[in-house]
Design brief:
Structural class: mainly alpha
Number of strands: 0
Number of helices: 7
Order of helices and strands: HHHHHHH
Strand content: under 5%
Shape: elongated
Largest sheet: none
CATH class: Mainly Alpha
Distance between the termini: 38 Å
CATH topology: Methane Monooxygenase Hydroxylase, Chain G, domain 1
Number of domains: 1
Length: 214
């Protein structure tokens, strides 16, 4: 019976890692769709979000069943609690990738990204992918040291976010209000995506140590 119980806990971990893979793919494809004005790719991000949501629903169902049948305590209880929190954050990351893809779809066949901010958006997309990849590795390995490192990657995302605002607010900004609004929203989506990845890593720290990162 206990072996089956711990197999269920291991299954939660596996599903969380799978969610990181799904939302990493989503933000990667959304970034490409945005930069290349690729409507088909944008639509694929939007439609495949159902897979992210379904995986999260599986996690929720497993957690509720475990709580009802096993009444977990101590480390096992922390595992169940953090799995729900991580799943929620990952599901939200999938939604944020969809938001990016929807901007690409809205502006198609034009691009929402003026040439002068393309390098910044590309870097933001790359950092987002790095963060979620590291988060998935931390979930699988329960490596506290690696989980703590995500803060520095998030700092890099914040710097890029501020760079976007400097571009938009520059006296030399030639593109008007609508592109400025698009860029503002897009920057926020990437910044929030990164924040959720850091929260996932923080939950790994809590799972292992019983304390939140300072």
């Amino acid at each position: 019976m206990r072996d089956a119980y711990h197999e269920e806990l291991d299954s939660l971990t596996a599903k969380l890692v799978e969610m990181t893979r799904l939302v990493r793919s989503a933000i990667s494809r959304a970034t490409t769709a945005l930069l290349d004005s690729d409507l088909q790719l944008a639509e694929s991000v939007i439609s495949r979000d159902a897979e992210v949501n379904a995986t999260f629903e599986e996690i929720e169902t497993s957690i509720f069943e475990l709580m009802a049948r096993q009444q977990p305590v101590a480390v096992d209880l922390r595992m169940v609690i953090t799995a729900l929190r991580m799943g929620t954050d990952l599901e939200r990351m999938g939604d944020l990738a969809v938001h990016v893809a929807k901007v690409a779809r809205l502006r198609h066949p034009e691009t929402a990204i003026p040439p002068e901010v393309r390098p910044t958006i590309l870097q933001m997309g790359q950092i987002a992918e790095t963060l979620v990849t590291k988060a998935g590795s931390c979930i699988a390995s329960q490596d506290v040291e690696s989980a703590m490192e995500l803060e520095s990657d998030d700092d890099a995302m914040d710097k890029l976010h501020r760079r976007l605002f400097r571009n938009i607010l520059s006296k030399d900004w030639p593109h008007g209000v609508e592109p400025a609004i698009d860029i503002t929203l897009i920057g926020r989506y990437y910044e929030r995506y990164a924040d959720h990845a850091v929260r996932v890593a923080g939950d790994v720290v809590y799972l292992v140590t019983g304390a939140r990162p300072a």
